[in-house]
Amino acid sequence: MKTRIIHSPDERDLKDAAEIIRGGGLVVFPTETVYGLGGSALDPDAARRIYEAKGRPSDNPLIIHLPSVGEVRKYADPPGIYFDLAERFLPGPLTVVMPKKDIIPDTVSAGLPTVAVRIPSNPTASELCRLAGVPIAAPSANLSGRPSVTTIQAAIEDMDGRADMIIDGGESEIGLESTIISLVGDPVLLRPGAVTLEMLREVIPDIKIGGAVKEKYDGRAIAPGMKYRHYAPSMPVVLIDGGDEGFYDYISEKKAALAKEGKRCGVLCYDEDSGRVDAAQILSLGPRADEKTAAHRLFGLLRSFSGVDVVYGRLPSTEGLGLAVFNRLIKAAGFEVVRL
Ligand code: TXA
Ligand code: MG
User: Which protein residue's CA is at the shortest distance from atom 7 of ligand 1?
Assistant: First the structure.
């Protein structure tokens, strides 16, 4: 497939993109979280094409994107609390799982009776949703298992030849996927994001935290039954939970041990650590207290490791946006955490 790549899209380009989506094709588009790989959510075949382009198992449901809260009732049955959340957080990086209407095909919801709905705030995404006139089903635009796409370079790397069009929107503002909550039964946080747990509690004080958010992090090496990797670079990632000196010493020891086998290690850390660790490749998430920068950089950095055999990372805090960074990192590490 020949992919059209559009830099600085104008209204005409977005109309073309909308036309592609209505015709059953696929468009990679920017959002405020990460780039999405979009197709018509009303077309069962478009959903199949999305799964194929990503190399993703079709038992994983897709999020539908809409231009406004006013459209939600066409495709889902929102409970009253949805509109309180919407008033506070939408458009924006919050996706809500609700009972679905029959118009959403089973290929989009992967057979579930529910649908995940998102109203993006990114102007290109929003305008594309409006022009398409159909809900846009869009997972993150990465190949399955790889870190999500937050730059046009990564979009081209993963999706050239797999989508009809790629729209350049520059670097994704947030850099991590949307917060997902379920409003089917008791409200549950399924995936942390830029709408943080603390923010959600202001509207839903008793919201629960889903099992996959922290993966029962109890300091042991591997959480049972959750060995699949996600968001991962091509080499193993191991997270280290410990103080500064312990972390630096651990890296020195590992570096020496690996060198004996002709291997090299990379380190994913903070600005405060960069000058104090010694490794073949050292990448920083930014100042330690700056979770926004860490979120913004994480996926790009995970894609940037090369020529190293293993990456050691520091465990982030779980406060605010830190919880989302923690969640993505622990998945990239296949839940492998070493407690010093
Ligand atoms: O920020 C985002 O949410 C990005 C942009 C493109 O909007 N999209 C995104 O989609 O991250 P994806 O497919 O990579 O992640 C969506 C997650 C998947 O883990 C999926 O299992 C879950 O949402 N999901 C979708 N529909 C669901 C449903 N009905 N019930 C429970 N989980 C659902
Ligand atoms: Mg994804």
Answer: 36
| Residue-wise pLDDT tens digits, 223-254 | 333 335 667 778 999 999 999 999 999 999 99
Whether the CA torsion 75, 81, 84, 89 is positive or negative: it is negative
Cα distance between residue 314 and residue 147, in whole Å? 18
Q: Which ligand is nearest to the CA of 61?
A: 1
Which stretches of the chain score pLDDT less than 70? 215-230
Query: Which amino acid is it at 213?
Result: V
The encoded tokens of residue 128 equal 């594309």
Please, is 179 exposed, middle or buried when counting C-beta atoms within 10 Å of its C-beta (0-12, 13-18, 19+)?
Answer: buried
The pLDDT assigned to 217 comes to 44
Residue 296: what residue type?
H
133 to 12, 18, 28, 61, 67: CA distances (angstroms): 16, 8, 17, 21, 9
- pLDDT at residue 59, as a whole number: 78
d(CA 10, CA 295): 29
pLDDT in the model for residue 228: 52
Rounded Cα distance, 266 and 269, in Å: 10
Distance (Å, whole) CA 281 – CA 264: 9
Six-digit token string for 340 = 């010093």
What is the reported pTM? 0.95
Note the pLDDT of residue 211: 82
Atom of ligand 1 nearest to the CA of 93: 1
* Token pair belonging to 195: 């709408």
How close is the Cα of 340 to the center of ligand 2, in Å? 31
Residue 209 to residue 198: CA distance in whole angstroms: 12
- Tell me the two tokens of residue 49: 């094409």
